[in-house]
Amino acid sequence: MIEKMTKYSFILPAGEGEGFLETLAGLGVMDITRSFKPVDERSEGMLAAASALKDRIATLEKDGYSSDSEYAAILQEKEIASKALRERSEWGEFNSSDIEGLAENGVTVKLYEVPEKKFAPAWEENCVLEEISREGGKVRFAAAFPSGTESPVPFKETPLPRKSIEAFNVELAEIDAKLRERELEIDEERKTLPEMKKKYGKILSDLDLYLAGVAKESAAEGHLELFTGFAPTEGDAELQEKLDEKGYFYLSESATAGDNPPIKLRNNAFARNFESLTGMYGMPVYDEMDPTPILAPFFLLFFSMCMGDAGYGLLLIAMAFLFKNGVNILGLGNHWRLIMMLGVGTTIVGFFLGTFFGISLPDAAWVPQRAKDLMITGEIAGFNAQMVLALAIGVFHICLAMVVKAIIFTRRFGLGETISTWGWVVLIVGGLTVGGFSLAGVLSARATKIAIIAVGVVSALAIFILNKPGRNPLINVGAGLWDTYGMVTGLAGDVLSYIRIFALGLAGGMLGSAFNSLASMTLGSDPTWQWIIFALIALVGHALNFAMCCLGAFVHPLRLNFLEFFKNSGYEGKGTKYSPITNNN
């Protein structure tokens, strides 16, 4: 969850800022920003002039000319004219006045562009056709027929070109001349860069002298330092007591989303270890949800399934104990608790998936039958049971994301802005629930039919009619159709993405088994050196496989949470992490 924050505004006389910051650093709870108020309009003008000159110097120092706004505008003008010329050239050169002359004599000429497959020479029975070009699967032609009669070509005509090819070429030549002229101007301006830098430095120097002079002459105007800080609300009493002891003048109020306060997460002992993963994507904004409590169990499950080997889980547990006792490799020592959880999860899930250091447990004679009965093997509806499980988990994960999005968006923006979102929840989550109950025999055929009709009617009204109350119904229907297209194409791909959970676990198990087989091939009648080779091959092979499995099991579960879940839950992650100043900063 996101901790509540209190916003503090401090006003201090100039010169006390550094001591004030040292005090806050000693407290270690304030995330602070500092600002200075310009003295007067003259100093503001000098600063603006220096800023503009600095931007111009940076532009001139860049390679090429396109960084110049005026040159970029002319270049864009050329691109538009070039595109128009290409489109015009497709019709060849002809005189528009000739076509106008034919119209005066009772002959109408129209241009058409139709797909080659739909072009019918039979149209020539009722008009005169003149084919102009045939490329890119399209036929461009002109049709001439008596004025006042309907065109025999059942396609929308292409408007006559407004300009000739020659006119476009003249226009492009003029634009090229403007570009060359602007290039010369920029080249000349670049020659003055040393003078511009000198002038920039003088403006800054004059500004410093001016501010120093005003500060001496005026003790009131522009003589204040302003600080804005945020601290957790639960520590307000202690913090305010210490601020009062120091005699600081401050205003405090509950932070709002509009204040954009920094974000501090507070979760239970389990989810707290996964907060760093949330931070890798981006912290939530103040009125968003903290996705960590949901990310934590799903990342653990996905990681465990991608590893898919109980033996590798034991290795992770052993590594966690080493990290806990002072061993720190690649900075992982601080995350030993997370690694321990991932190891325990991998061990448990790996057992149910039936793999131990590449050994297939369901096929091993030394594994008790009771244990084998607990493992996920065989097929469901003709598909691998583990693959079906991965897809089922993916469907549940996405449905959960949609429910979370509906709840959070309703809380943030109101029900009127989220009716369509709730419609999709009813359609997808409700439809899957009804289907599941029906397959399980909980609902009769009649009850299932009624439930499906109810789900369809409610969701259709929410998605296509009521998605934006007060808006034109036709616009709502159009928006609903567009939303439907995005949902249909997006959700299918999202669900299929979860196959990677099964695929990575299967690949790791098969590769481990291959190393076992390769090592076993070295065994023979000599029990000494052959066992040494066996051990070397097995150790090196499983070490490589373990490293690759760890990498894949970390990256792909992150992707499933970051892309599939966060996207469907509407999570933005644009917040700023709470970072209080301390004596160690």
Beta-strand proportion: 5-15%
State the shape.
extended
The structural domain count equals: 4
Q: Rg to the nearest angstrom?
A: 36 Å
Query: Mind summarizing the main beta sheet?
Result: 4 strands, antiparallel
Instruction: Report the end-to-end length measured between terminal Cα atoms.
Output: 26 Å
**Sheet with the most strands: spatial strand order:** 2-6-1-7
- Structural category is alpha+beta
The SSE string, one letter per element, is EHEHHHEEEHHEHEHHHHEEHEEHHHHHH
Helicity, as a percent range: 55-70%
Give the mean pLDDT: 83
Unreliable parts:
215-224
Number of helices: 18
Number of strands: 11
Structure overview:
With 585 residues, this protein is an alpha+beta fold. The strands form four sheets. A four-stranded antiparallel sheet has the order 2-6-1-7, with no helix packed on it. It is extended. The longest helix has 41 residues, at 529-569. α13 (385-413) runs antiparallel to α16 (473-496). The chain has four domains: 1-37 and 222-261, ACT domain (Alpha-Beta Plaits, 2-Layer Sandwich), CATH 3.30.70.260; 44-84 and 168-212; 92-160, no CATH class; 271-569, no CATH class. It contains 18 helices and eleven strands.
Give the SSE map.
Layout: E1 5-13, H1 17-27, E2 31-36, H2 41-61, H3 69-89, H4 96-104, E3 107-115, E4 128-135, E5 138-146, H5 165-190, H6 193-217, E6 224-232, H7 236-246, E7 250-254, H8 275-281, H9 292-307, H10 310-324, H11 336-353, E8 355-356, E9 359-360, H12 369-373, E10 379-380, E11 383-384, H13 385-413, H14 419-439, H15 445-465, H16 473-496, H17 499-520, H18 529-569
Antiparallel strand pairs: 1-6, 1-7, 2-6, 3-5, 4-5, 8-9, 10-11
Helix pairs in contact: 2-6, 3-5, 9-11, 9-17, 9-18, 10-11, 13-14, 13-16, 13-17, 13-18, 14-15, 17-18
